[in-house]
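Look over what follows to help learners.
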Amino acid sequence: MQPMYLEQRLDDNWKYSNELGLAGMVVGALFGPEILQVIPSMTESIRALTAPEITGGEAFIRFSTATIFGGLSVFAGVGYNLARNHGGRVVDMAKRLADATKQAKESYSRMDSLREEFSEYVAKFESRYGKFEKSPRLLFGFLPFGTNAVALTDYSVVINVFPINYFLGKIAHALVYKEFHDDKLTVRHELGHLVFLQILNELNPNWLRAKGNMLDSERKMKRQHITISEGVAEYLAVQNERKIHEWNVYDPYFNFVRPVLDGFGVRDGIKKLLLQPPTRQELKEPRTYYERLGLK
């Protein structure tokens, strides 16, 4: 399922919004301070900003209200067009937003249960792909915005528990893919990265190496690095539970490595990907890469 509104024409959703924005700016510049005076809590702020002793006070407040009124008018226009053209989808999105928020709260409260499940996942991965060089450990920490979790080269899996990041990530995923992203899948994906790391350390290819706590590749091989590592991690995470989406950030990577891992097996397939990595052109034309590897 594609993200909401991705396939729609931009001009339909922005129809008349620019005109509304200009009108809002004019109204804000001419009457903004007077309109805001109606709001009791704004009275003192307006009076302070327009005081004679403040240089440019009057001009500043009218410029500010023009900007605010203009911006609100544009958003109002876009909102009206979206509701008019896609009212059913907006209602559906609102429902999913409410459901995802509730599920995220419940998932966040059960975070400690991941510790017990983590050891079970490690055992399953080791039974399938061999014993890890170091015992993986699960950590909870604050990661940069937009990072759900990360696997480090010291065999640590860090789950982002910073509340804003956690909740926004879960809600965004539910809105785009129409399903809740479970933390268990996140843990399995990161363990998939550790399996990849283990085989990487055995081979030590010259284009991809550990650098500090992360992997680093040659500049010209960045796309190959992302495609292979994320594709392998997702392949190992989902196993036979794969749900294909038309717009999933991991789908292009998963789809690229799948024929190789299916054809040669996980360990030998990863070795093929590392020792005979695709070129950038082969990333665009996967069939040529598969033929080079001898896959039919």
